[in-house]
Specification:
About 45% of the residues lie in helices and about 15% in strands. The protein is α+β, with helices and mostly antiparallel strands. It folds into two domains: about 290 residues, Fic-like fold (Orthogonal Bundle); about 170 residues, no CATH class. The strands form four sheets. It has a six-stranded antiparallel β-sheet, with helices on one face. β10 and β11 form a beta hairpin. The protein starts with a helix and ends with a helix. About 5% of the residues have low confidence. This is Fic family protein. It comes from Reichenbachiella faecimaris. One of its GO terms (molecular function) is ATP binding. Pfam families: Fic.
Length: about 475
């Protein structure tokens, strides 16, 4: 189906969107207080999700602090803070430009957006057209001068438009936009411009963010709310783009329409003075408050503090990570998880002393602060560790083991979290061969939900890379 037929066709969402737009217009003008809270919500959601999808590590709460209070909480990387502020500036730019009828969308403005969001030139890991890992300098605000390629989940190398053909293709895209901007469905127009831009990938970096900014410029220009592609919905988004790659353009149009329905329904709620908080928003606010208010006080190590940290890390970080790692079990001959207390391997069961306690069950002698069958009120804890050992990679020509460990070292006023490839084997926990994640935090600074997602993604990608390297 060509782009013209898609844009003129009715989809299953067409009538619903038409009704929602009509309802929103009926409720206009919106009261100032309702407009303010809607703008705040959409600004936060767009900046957070568009950047998080590309690897920015700021949590939702940290993003809110940066955008609305100009504060930085926790150990947020300076580069990620700068990136978030720059992206917010670009959002403001497209909103202002959409209001100016004298300023048309141009290639120069698109280049300026790329320069704004990337801030300054830098070096980045890259893949050559032949699939070789390399590094390249990222030039900002300029079309690419070297090829940009990406390794697909299938392992294949996908090459975007070549540097030589990029200026011509971008010129043709802008001409296509000017020909269609005044008489075609604006949501379809925005969706297909976004897709065509991504196919070209004209810049060294920042193409996804710029494409989503321009998509929303087109929507703003047509008095529509912005599209928010949630980072948690990334798989569906990428699937829609992949379907479009093989000719199913309606897939990306339908996906963007579904996100517009969310934005319109949210806007209507705001216009009616109703709550626009979503499920989880209260938790996000509490997380932000915790970051802002509780990380300034000092807490020292006690059995209770250590035990609470252990329980939190076990449930919120290790168990989800172990569950993800277990998905690789089929690639290995054997997989086991080991636990270490103060560097010594812990058996699954402990022998109960003879005598009066010989008849007692484990539950009857369970202590209040029990970590790996050790009562830390009596046995001081200095470190704990889980190690997932994946033994003998089936596809390798030689014996290859991958051991992923998560270690917590308890210090007087802080703890050190390390996750990476572990050398631990047998009864003793040795040092890490490769530390992939390392965080030195005070005791009242815990790992947040978004950080857990990033950690699991980092570790999973490392295991995948190791399996590929040893084929």
């Amino acid at each position: 189906m060509n782009s013209g037929s898609v844009m003129n066709a009715k989809t299953e969402n067409t009538e619903k969107i038409k009704f929602l737009i009509s309802e929103l217009k009926r409720l206009m003008p919106m009261q100032d207080k309702d407009r303010s809270r809607l703008d705040r919500k959409l600004r936060l959601e767009f900046n957070y999700n568009s950047n998080h999808m590309e690897g920015n590590t700021l949590t939702y709460g940290q993003t809110e602090l940066v955008l609305f209070f100009d504060k930085v909480a926790g150990d947020a990387p300076l580069s990620d803070v700068e990136e978030m502020k720059a992206h917010d500036l670009a959002l403001i730019q497209i909103e202002e430009m959409a209001k100016d009828d004298e300023r048309p969308l141009t290639e120069q403005f698109i280049k300026e957006l790329n320069e704004i969001i990337l801030v300054r030139p830098y070096w980045k890991e890259a893949i050559s057209p032949e699939g070789i890992s390399t590094r390249k300098q990222i030039e900002i605000g300029k079309y690419k001068s070297t090829p940009n390629s990406v390794r697909l989940r299938s392992g294949e190398i996908h090459n975007y438009a070549s540097p030589e053909e990029t200026p011509t293709l971008m010129g043709e895209l802008m001409e296509w936009y000017r020909e269609n901007m005044n008489h075609l469905n604006p949501i379809h127009l925005a969706a297909l411009f976004h897709y065509k831009f991504v196919c070209i990938h004209p810049f060294d970096d920042g193409n996804g963010r710029v494409s989503r900014l321009i998509m929303n410029y087109i929507l703003f220009k047509n008095n529509l709310p912005p599209i928010i592609i949630k980072s948690k919905d990334k798989e569906k988004y990428l699937t829609a783009l992949q379907k479009a790659d093989v000719g199913d353009l309606e897939a990306i149009v339908s996906y963007i329409e579904s996100q517009m329905i969310w934005s319109l329904e949210l806007s209507i709620k705001a216009a009616k003075g109703q709550s626009i908080d979503e499920h989880g928003d209260v938790e996000k606010e509490i997380e932000m408050l915790r970051r802002e208010k509780l990380t300034s006080s000092q807490i020292y190590k006690t059995p209770k503090v250590a035990y609470n940290l252990f329980n939190f890390m076990k449930g919120e970080l290790w168990e989800p990570l172990e569950q993800t790692l277990s998905k690789f079990d089929d690639f290995f001959s054997e997989a086991k998880t080991y636990r270490y207390f103060n560097g010594i391997k812990v058996d699954k069961t402990r022998t109960i002393r003879s005598g009066i306690l010989a008849f007692a069950t484990r539950e009857e002698i369970e202590k209040e602060y029990n970590i790996f069958e050790h009562d830390i009120a009596e046995d001081e804890v200095s470190s704990i560790q889980w190690t997932r050992q994946m033994l003998s990679l089936k596809s390798a020509s030689k014996k290859v083991d991958i051991k992923i460990g998560l270690k917590i070292e308890f210090n007087e006023s802080s703890y050190l979290l390390t996750i990476g490839e572990s050398n631990s084997s047998g009864k003793v926990a040795h040092s890490f061969n490769v530390a992939l994640i390392q965080k030195d935090n005070i005791y009242n600074k815990l790992i947040m939900t978004d950080e857990v997602e990033n950690i699991i993604k980092t570790i999973s990608n490392h295991v995948i890379e190791q399996i590929r390297l040893n084929d």
